[in-house]
Amino acid sequence: MIDLEAEIRRFVRVRYQSVFDHVHRTHARRPVPIVRQAILDELRRLGTTPRMELVDTAAEFISSGGRFELR
């Protein structure tokens, strides 16, 4: 039987990771506020209400040139 909760978590993780990867490709090494807004725009486009703590952490990593990965 399929573990629905695990599948939902995996789906959300993949969606978020795809947004972080896209923003990294398009906005790496830009100021944190610009990266943060790019992440928010992409997540909202997908219809997702993001946790700001996660968005802020990802924006800081991407702004510094690093690739943010969910674990």
Topology summary:
Blueprint (H helix, E strand, L loop, with lengths): L3 H24 L4 H14 L6 H12 L8
Helix pairs in contact: 1-2, 2-3
Could you explain how this protein is built, in words?
70% of the residues lie in helices and 0% in strands. The chain is an all-alpha fold. The protein is elongated. The model has no long low-confidence stretch (mean pLDDT 94).
Shape: elongated
Biggest pleated-sheet summary: none
Structural class: mainly alpha
Span of the ends, CA to CA: 24 Å
Count every helix, treating DSSP H or I runs of 4 or more residues as helices: 3
Number of strands: 0
Assembly state of the chains shown: single chain
Strand percent estimate? under 5%
Based on CA atoms alone, the radius of gyration comes out at 13 Å
Low-confidence runs of at least 5 consecutive residues: none
Order of helices and strands: HHH
Helix content: over 70%
Mean of pLDDT: 94
What keywords describe this structure?
about 70 residues; single chain; mainly alpha
Brief characterization of the structure:
The chain has 71 residues and is mostly helical. It has helices at residues 4-27, 32-45, 52-63.
